[in-house]
Amino acid sequence: PSNPQVEREHAILRQDGCRAKGGAPGFKVAILGAAGGIGQPLAMLMKMNPLVSVLHLYDVVNSPGVTADISHMDTGAVVRGFLGQQQLESALTGMDLVVIPAGVPRKPGMTRDDLFNINAGIVKTLCEGIAKSCPNAIVNLISNPVNSTVPIAAEVFKKAGTYDPKKLLGVTMLDVVRANTFVAEVLGLDPREVNVPVVGGHAGVTILPLLSQVKPPCSFTSEETEYLTKRIQDGGTEVVQAKAGTGSATLSMAYAAVKFADACLRGLRGDAGIVECAFVASQVTELPFFASKVKLGRGGAEEVHQLGPLNEYERVGLEKAKKELEASIQKGISFIRK
Ligand code: NAD
Ligand code: LMR
Q1: 14: which residues sit within 8 A by CB, 6+ positions away?
Q2: What is the pLDDT of residues 294-312, one digit of tens each?
Q3: Are strands 97-100 and 27-32 parallel, antiparallel or unpaired?
Q4: Which atom of ligand 1 is least distant from the CA of 119?
């Protein structure tokens, strides 16, 4: 029997490039880990995004229920669900953007690196699927530890001969979202008016907010700098502790993931001046990966911005960040090369 969702998707896929029904631009997006704490609200927000014409929801459990639920929303995107490894290829074929929040979250007392043993294998398998089924897609990697999972993904793509460094982006947007919120609180401003660059990586001291470069321009006392830097670096742990064993940030993460994915899609569409922070292949420091501002365009992270002038506090922070990052990056690379 014919399935109207599948027929509508096929009609969209037959249309040229990113043009969806009615001539509006539309992209095909897959979420891997779509039934999880991040995956579900992320799927809901992506279904609300007018730039998305096809939304594929993949998980190893519960994706049919999440898909049925989300598919009743009266927005434009066609939603289809995929369950289990044997459906990974169908979930990925034809995708422009793949967002990956698959993997286990922290419990109190754990570091993100404690997730490595389980999540490294999950990311490896999913990236092998991407290399096979949608090697040109932009990848937004959320699964922790991001400082190691991005190097893992890069090695998988290199091995498959599909690696395009511009298209692999570790999602550090939640650090920026938190930094904007906490800084706005101190300054007494609306967080929507504040922009804080956060560079380095996505764990503890590797998260380096550049408070000297906040927009609008402002200054902080050394106590404020100390308080804000620490709060931004420990934002994830603050949520893990408050959730008391039931998981880590999911709702603010889904918000941040959609903010970042939307920026990637606007870049793909050809919009000018899209700049966000992300953890990418980089020559900004001596490390092979580093988070900084990147310009998003049709090819992904088309330009990686330099860090700009740092103050003494930030220079000390940068040295600490690089030390930890180097080990985490190497751990990811070795996982595939071993
Ligand atoms: P969760 O346990 O609620 O959900 C994870 C989902 O992944 C589950 O539905 C699970 O079935 C699925 N999954 C497991 N193995 C899979 C596989 N092989 N293929 C597809 N799906 C698979 O966890 P969560 O709270 O959604 O967090 C997910 C990940 O995101 C964690 O690693 C967490 O640390 C990370 N995270 C990162 C950031 C960031 O800023 N980058 C922020 C928050 C959480
Ligand atoms: C976060 O920053 O909230 C995530 O990386 C999840 C975590 O483990 O802290």
Answers
A1: none
A2: 999 999 999 999 999 999 9
A3: parallel
A4: 32
